[in-house]
C-alpha cells in the first residue's frame, strides 16, 4: 500500500540548518517518542490497577490525648524557665512512650492479642513470601521470629503517633484490615499508654518515698544534733535565753528603752520648770493663766482676783478712785494676786524637785547601760559562734520540714497517682477504608508513568543519531540532497509471482514486484517525481562519450538502493532512452533475483546464464548476475572482468547505464565496482543509518565519496518528518516550487 503523495523536496530548500530552542527540541522529542510515552504510561496505569487489585484495604481509627500538665517532681521544684523549655521535650518523650516496645509488650500480654484469631490472621498475612523469606535468610536479615516479635513488628508498622501542630495534643492512629479491629487496637494502645503513664508515676512515687523517707530521717537526726549542740554551748558559756533571745540582750534592750523614757521625762520637767520660773520673774498675770490650769487653787485665786478687780474698776468708774469700797476691793485683788504667786512659787519648787529626780534616773540608767554593754562585749565571740550554730540548726529544720511535706505528697501519689493526660477524642469505628487511596495512587501512578515516559523518551530520542534531516545527510555525504522518497509498504515476506507474466521470450525482464515498476504504474507519484529530478540533476556527458554511467549505492543492505536503481532505469526507459540496469552486487544480486528469477531458476550452471535481458515494451535492459551457490567453482563466481567488458561494450548501445553497486559495508568490493561509473547516487534509508556509520563507511571508500553527486532519502515517513525539521515546521517548508506536487 502506498502512502498519500506529496511534493518531492527541491535540493536548495532542503539544506537549511536552523538552531532549535531546547524546549522545542524536548517537545519534539516527546512527540517523536509519543508511543513510548504512552506505553510507559500505560504500564504505570496497569501497575496501578494491579496494585489496587492485590492491595488489601486498611481501615484507620484515631484517638486524641491532651497532655495536661507536668508530671510531679518529688525531688526539686521546677522553675518557670524549666517549665517553658520542657514543653516540647515532654511531648517528644510522650510520643516515644507510646511507640516504645515495652508499652507494646505489656499491651500484648495484658490483652492476650496472640490468642485472638483476627490478630493472628493479620500477622500471617504480613509475613513475607517464601522467596522473600529465603532472601532475608540468605543475606542474614531474616530468621525464625517468635510470634511476639512479629506482633511487635506489625503494631509498629500499623501505628502512627504524631503531635497535632503546635498544640499539646497527641494523635494515635492504627490501621487494620477490619474497622472493628482498628478501633479496638486504637483503644488498646490508648489504654496501654495510660497504664504506662500510671506505672511510671507509681514507680517514681515509690522510689521517691523510699528516698525521701531515708532523707527525712537523716535530716531529723541532724536537726536534733544541732539543737543539742546549741543548748550545750549556751550552758557552757552562760548564754541563757528566754523566748528565743539571750537574757543579756533582753536586759540591755529594756534598759535602753527606759533610758529613752527617762530622758523624755527629764526634758519635760526642765521645760516646765524653766517656764514657771520665767512667769514668776515677770509677775505677769496673763502669763500665769496657762499654769493656773494645772492647779485648782491657783485657778480659784485667779478667779477671785479677777472678780475683785472687776468690781473695783466698776465702783472706781462710778464713784471715783477715793471711794472706800473701791479701795477695799483693790486691796482684796492685790491680796489674791500675792497668794496666787506664792502658790506658783511652791509649784515651781515641786517642778525643780521632779527635774532633779528625772536627771538622777537618767544618770543611773546610763551607768547601768554602760555596765551591761561592757558585760555584753565580753560575750560577742561566743555569740557569733552561737549564731552560726543557730543558723545551721534553722537550715536543717527547714530542709527537714520541706522533705517531710514532699514525703507526704509522694505517699499520696503512690496510693493514687495522678496522670497528667486526658483522652479528648476516643477511637471510633471507621466507615471507609483509608488505604489504598485510589485517587492519590492514581495521581502518583500517572505522574510517575508520565515522568518516566518523558525521561525514557528524551533519553532514547537524544541518543538517537539516525539520519533524518536533509542537512544531516548533506553534511555527512558532502553532496546535495535530491529528494525524499516515501515509504511504500508491502508484505514483509514477499515472493514475486512470475506466472502472472506470460511472456513468450524466456530472457525478458519480468517486474513482478509493484515497487520495481512503480515508475511505470504511477508516473505522477512522489517517488517518480523525485527520480525524475534525479535524472535531471545528472551532469551532461563529455564530448566523445555515448552513454552516461550512474551508480547507485547505499551504506548497508536493505536500504532500497535496488528499488531506486530499478525505477531510475525504468523511468529513463519510459522517456525513450536506451537504458541498461547492471546488477553489480557480487554477494547479494537483488536486482537479478527480483527481475530475472525465472531465468535464474531455469539455468543449471552460472556459466550458461544469459546475462543480458530486455524489457518487452520499453528500451530497458538488465545485465544480470547469476545467483551464487556453494557448488559453484571459482570461474562461475568471478565474472567481474566479463561484466566490465559487457559494460564497456554497452556504452555504445545505450544512453544511460545504471549500476546497482554493492553497499558500502562490502569494503573493497564496492571500491572496485565504483571505478566503472561517472557519478554515484547515494541512497540512505530515513532513520535507518547513523551519522557515524555513514561517515565511517565513506571514509573507508574514498573513491565512492569523491564521485557522489547526489543523495536520496528513502523510506521516508512523511507523517513523522515534520517532527525532525526546524522545530516541527510542516514538511511543505522543505518542498521546492516546481514539479507535479509543488505547492
Written account of the structure:
This protein has 743 residues and is an alpha/beta fold. 57% of the residues lie in helices and 10% in strands. An eight-stranded mixed β-sheet has the order 7-14-13-8-12-9-11-10, sandwiched between helices. A four-stranded antiparallel β-sheet has the order 2-3-1-6. Helix 5 crosses helix 7 (147-158) and helix 17 crosses helix 18 (561-574). The longest helix has 59 residues, at 179-237.
> Strand-residue fraction?
5-15%
With strands numbered from the N-terminus, the spatial order across the biggest sheet is: 7-14-13-8-12-9-11-10
Helical proportion, percent range: 55-70%
Q: How many helical stretches?
A: 25
Distance between the termini: 24 Å
Regions with pLDDT < 50 over 5+ consecutive residues? 1-17, 74-85, 493-504, 630-637, 733-743
| Category from helices, strands and their pairing | alpha/beta
* Average pLDDT level: 75
The coarse silhouette is elongated
Radius of gyration: 66 Å
Amino acid at each position: 500500500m502506498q502512502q498519500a503523495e506529496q511534493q518531492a523536496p527541491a535540493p536548495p530548500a532542503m539544506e537549511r540548518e536552523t538552531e532549535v530552542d531546547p524546549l522545542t527540541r524536548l517537545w519534539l522529542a516527546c512527540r517523536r517518542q509519543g508511543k513510548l510515552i504512552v506505553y510507559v504510561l500505560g504500564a504505570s496505569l496497569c501497575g496501578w490497577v494491579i496494585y489496587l487489585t492485590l492491595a488489601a484495604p486498611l481501615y484507620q481509627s484515631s484517638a486524641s490525648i491532651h497532655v495536661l500538665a507536668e508530671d510531679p517532681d518529688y525531688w526539686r521544684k521546677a522553675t518557670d524557665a524549666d517549665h517553658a523549655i520542657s514543653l516540647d521535650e515532654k511531648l517528644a518523650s510522650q510520643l516515644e512512650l507510646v511507640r516504645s516496645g515495652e508499652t507494646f509488650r505489656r499491651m500484648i500480654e495484658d490483652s492476650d492479642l496472640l490468642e485472638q484469631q483476627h490478630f493472628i490472621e493479620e500477622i500471617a498475612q504480613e509475613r513475607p513470601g517464601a522467596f522473600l523469606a529465603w532472601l532475608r535468610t540468605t543475606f542474614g536479615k531474616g530468621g525464625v521470629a517468635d510470634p511476639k516479635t512479629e506482633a511487635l513488628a506489625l503494631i509498629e508498622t500499623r501505628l502512627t503517633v504524631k503531635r497535632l501542630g503546635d498544640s499539646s495534643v497527641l494523635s494515635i492512629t492504627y490501621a487494620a484490615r477490619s474497622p472493628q479491629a482498628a478501633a479496638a487496637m486504637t483503644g488498646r494502645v490508648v489504654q496501654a499508654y495510660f497504664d504506662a503513664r500510671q506505672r511510671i508515676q507509681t514507680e517514681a512515687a515509690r522510689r521517691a518515698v523510699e528516698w525521701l523517707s531515708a532523707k527525712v530521717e537523716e535530716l531529723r537526726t541532724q536537726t536534733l544534733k544541732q539543737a543539742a549542740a546549741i543548748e550545750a554551748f549556751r550552758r557552757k558559756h552562760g548564754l541563757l535565753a528566754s523566748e528565743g533571745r539571750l537574757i543579756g540582750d533582753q536586759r540591755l534592750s529594756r534598759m535602753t528603752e527606759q533610758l529613752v523614757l527617762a530622758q523624755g521625762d527629764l526634758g519635760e520637767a526642765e521645760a516646765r520648770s524653766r517656764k514657771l520660773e520665767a512667769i514668776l520673774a515677770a509677775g505677769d498675770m496673763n502669763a500665769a493663766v496657762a499654769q493656773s490650769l494645772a492647779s485648782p487653787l491657783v485657778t480659784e485665786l485667779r478667779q477671785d482676783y479677777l472678780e475683785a478687780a472687776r468690781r473695783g474698776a466698776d465702783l472706781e468708774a462710778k464713784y471715783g478712785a477715793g471711794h472706800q469700797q473701791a479701795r477695799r476691793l483693790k486691796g482684796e485683788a492685790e491680796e489674791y494676786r500675792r497668794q496666787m504667786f506664792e502658790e506658783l512659787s511652791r509649784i515651781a519648787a515641786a517642778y525643780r524637785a521632779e527635774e532633779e529626780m528625772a536627771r538622777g534616773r537618767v544618770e543611773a540608767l546610763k551607768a547601768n547601760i554602760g555596765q551591761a554593754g561592757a558585760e555584753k562585749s565580753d560575750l560577742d565571740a561566743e555569740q557569733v559562734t552561737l549564731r552560726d550554730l543557730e543558723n545551721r540548726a534553722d537550715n536543717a529544720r527547714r530542709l527537714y520540714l520541706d522533705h517531710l511535706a514532699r514525703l507526704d505528697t509522694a505517699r499520696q501519689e503512690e496510693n493514687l497517682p495522678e496522670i497528667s493526660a486526658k483522652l479528648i477524642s476516643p477511637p471510633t469505628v471507621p466507615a471507609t477504608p483509608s488505604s489504598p487511596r485510589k485517587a492519590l495512587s492514581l495521581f502518583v501512578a500517572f505522574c510517575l508513568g508520565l515522568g518516566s515516559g518523558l525521561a525514557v523518551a528524551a533519553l532514547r530520542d537524544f541518543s538517537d543519531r539516525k539520519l533524518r534531516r536533509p542537512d544531516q545527510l548533506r553534511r555527512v555525504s558532502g553532496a546535495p540532497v535530491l529528494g525524499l522518497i516515501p515509504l511504500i509498504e508491502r508484505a514483509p515476506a514477499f515472493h514475486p509471482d512470475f506466472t502472472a507474466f506470460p511472456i513468450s521470450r524466456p530472457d525478458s525482464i519480468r517486474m513482478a514486484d509493484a515497487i520495481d515498476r512503480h515508475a511505470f504504474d504511477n508516473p505522477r507519484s512522489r517517488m517518480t517525481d523525485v527520480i525524475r529530478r534525479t535524472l535531471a540533476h545528472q551532469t551532461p556527458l563529455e564530448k566523445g562519450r555515448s552513454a552516461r554511467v550512474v551508480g547507485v549505492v547505499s551504506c548497508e543492505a536493505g536500504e532500497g538502493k535496488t528499488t531506486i536503481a530499478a525505477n531510475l532505469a525504468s523511468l529513463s526507459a519510459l522517456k525513450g532512452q536506451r537504458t541498461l540496469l547492471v546488477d553489480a552486487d557480487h554477494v547479494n544480486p537483488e536486482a537479478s533475483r527480483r527481475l530475472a528469477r525465472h531465468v535464474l531458476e531455469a539455468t543449471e550452471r552460472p556459466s550458461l546464464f544469459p546475462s543480458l535481458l530486455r524489457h518487452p515494451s520499453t528500451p530497458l535492459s538488465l545485465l544480470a548476475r547469476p545467483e551464487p551457490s556453494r557448488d559453484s567453482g571459482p570461474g562461475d563466481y568471478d565474472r567481474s572482468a566479463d561484466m566490465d567488458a559487457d559494460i564497456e561494450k554497452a556504452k555504445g548501445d545505450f544512453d544511460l547505464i545504471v549500476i546497482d553497486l554493492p553497499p558500502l559495508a562490502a569494503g573493497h568490493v564496492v571500491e572496485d565496482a565504483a571505478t566503472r561509473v561517472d557519478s554515484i547516487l547515494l541512497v540512505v534509508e530515513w532513520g535507518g543509518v547513523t551519522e557515524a556509520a555513514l561517515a565511517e563507511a565513506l571514509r573507508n571508500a574514498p573513491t565512492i565519496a569523491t564521485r557522489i553527486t547526489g543523495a536520496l532519502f528513502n523510506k521516508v515517513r512523511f507523517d513523522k518528518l515534520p517532527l525532525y525539521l526546524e522545530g516541527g515546521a510542516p514538511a511543505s517548508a522543505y518542498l521546492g516550487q516546481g514539479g507535479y506536487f509543488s505547492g
